């Protein structure tokens, strides 16, 4: 029987990072993955493929709508080859997952392809993909089994017309009308992909705004921009039924007045969130407790009620984000090595990869008001930047929230070009407990989108932005 210091169940961003860090710290490490490729949801059917399609569809939209303005003339009609676009997406996924396999080999991590389930607290049974079974022993075990798309109890997913994000990444045709249930990150990103490619897209959302977990100002601005791009929205609508009739999908929902509204399309994307995935784990055999929502219950050190078993990522509490899982994987590895790592969950940024991109870190205005914290707000529009005008990406703004008395930055919220990258400036500043004045006094290269951060900080500090 093979014996290990640490075994990780699941090879998504949390799992493979945990395994690499454990190996770096001198532990004999194994990782178990049920699928034939490493990388979990993020690399195979999540973050990476969706960004590949977002980028491809963005290029197409630019060619159709913006190239002529830039003085680029293309003879003939610009056409979408969806099959080739999907194939390019898959090649990006393949390269990335092979990269993870390379890292496993480089760090001398044993990889088991199969389903891992607990035999007891220190032994794992593996149903290998070749049909054989194997049992390994491990001093410590990290559960990193991730999440799966959620649905609603009355929706029957046929994975052909009534689909999740997984199937939306493999469509054989551009929908005529895609109905998206859920106005969160996944629904908006994939909705924008197919809107760019020519589909009519209607987003049906239960809450009174899209991206409801983010600052209300971001929600309002993003919906304004997406409406300008001809996406349609039905907010405060409670979906009550989804039925397929031939090649048509009929969605019925109650609006805020309680009246039934009907939507008809040829595809329905169900994007109502994700659920922790523990199917087949046999956690009870090890005595590991799950909470009322099916997540693995952990303490502040990500330790379960069984002292040698830890859990990270989507399968535990908190935001279901790949980078949050990576930080947790690193933290557990370093704890096992006797170090004293920490994670500030308030400083895990959130990003929506639509265009314009949306990104945020720290507290929203709503949270600060609810907590009774006095704050200042400084905001600067992207359209006032020379760089934004040069690239024709003028939508959006940067908003910085700072403590009214101390000037410490409490939240950074932005929507615009490259905000997914820009938000790290806010994370860095807040990690070192910078003031808005600190951010305002930093030199920012000109012309850049990042100048909006400096200007918003000036607005928050003394209400003295230079360029508006």
UniProtKB/TrEMBL annotation:
Residues 348-457 form the Pyridine nucleotide-disulphide oxidoreductase dimerisation domain. Pfam families: Pyr_redox_2, Pyr_redox_dim. GO terms for molecular function: dihydrolipoyl dehydrogenase (NADH) activity. The keyword NAD applies. Its cofactor is FAD. Binds 1 FAD per subunit. Residues 4-329 form the FAD/NAD(P)-binding domain. Coiled coil: none annotated. InterPro entries: Class-I_Pyr_Nuc-Dis_Oxidored, FAD/NAD-bd_sf, FAD/NAD-binding_dom, FAD/NAD-linked_Rdtase_dimer_sf, Lipoamide_DH, Pyr_nuc-diS_OxRdtase, Pyr_nucl-diS_OxRdtase_dimer, Pyr_OxRdtase_I_AS. It catalyses: N(6)-[(R)-dihydrolipoyl]-L-lysyl-[protein] + NAD(+) = N(6)-[(R)-lipoyl]-L-lysyl-[protein] + NADH + H(+). PROSITE patterns: PYRIDINE_REDOX_1. Keywords: Disulfide bond, FAD, Flavoprotein, NAD, Oxidoreductase, Redox-active center. Transmembrane segments: none annotated. Its EC number is 1.8.1.4. Belongs to the class-I pyridine nucleotide-disulfide oxidoreductase family. The active site is a redox-active disulfide bond. This is Dihydrolipoyl dehydrogenase. It comes from Flagellimonas spongiicola.
